């Protein structure tokens, strides 16, 4: 949950900052390079940002939030997290195997 709230905060802050930048620069740009030039400049910056994200940001589709978190960890922290995850999985399996959920009902 901490990652979700942190990412939403970062996303909201960057949205507001870039909206402020566009608002502050638009009138000056329209005087310097016309309205069309301003929009073309913003479009070029958007294409550059798209290329940056396409090639340098890892794909996270289909991953859980915990798996996304491990993508951004160092190798040492990633190995520790994977070891803890394996221990938890083994503990849950052992508890599951100790309880007999699939017992046959007794016939009367």
Could you describe the 3D structure shown?
The protein has about 110 residues and is mostly helical. The chain contains three helices and no strands. It has helices spanning about 1-55, 65-70, 75-100. The longest helix is centred in the first third of the chain and has 55 residues, at about 1-55. It starts with a helix and ends in a 10-residue tail after the last helix. The mean pLDDT is about 85.
Mean pLDDT, as a whole number? 84
Strand content: under 5%
Described by strand count, sense and barrel closure, the largest sheet is:
none
N-to-C span: 49 Å
Total number of beta strands:
0
Low-confidence segments: none
Main location: membrane
Domain Major facilitator superfamily (MFS) profile: 1-61
Subcellular location: Membrane
Membrane topology: Multi-pass membrane protein
List descriptors:
single chain; 108 residues; mainly alpha; 80% helix
Topology (elements, then pairings):
Layout: H1 2-56, H2 65-71, H3 75-98
GO cellular component, one term: apical plasma membrane
Membrane topology: Multi-pass membrane protein
Keywords: Membrane, Transmembrane, Transmembrane helix, Transport
């Amino acid at each position: 949950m901490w990652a979700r709230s942190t990412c939403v905060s970062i996303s909201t802050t960057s949205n507001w900052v870039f909206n402020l930048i566009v608002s502050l620069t638009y009138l000056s740009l329209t005087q310097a390079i016309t309205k069309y030039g301003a929009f073309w400049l913003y479009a070029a910056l958007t294409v550059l940002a798209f290329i940056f994200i396409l090639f340098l940001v890892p794909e996270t589709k289909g991953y859980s939030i915990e798996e996304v978190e491990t993508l951004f960890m160092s190798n040492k922290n990633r190995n520790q997290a994977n070891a803890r995850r394996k221990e938890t999985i083994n503990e849950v399996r052992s508890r599951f195997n100790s309880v007999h959920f699939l017992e046959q009902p007794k016939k009367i």
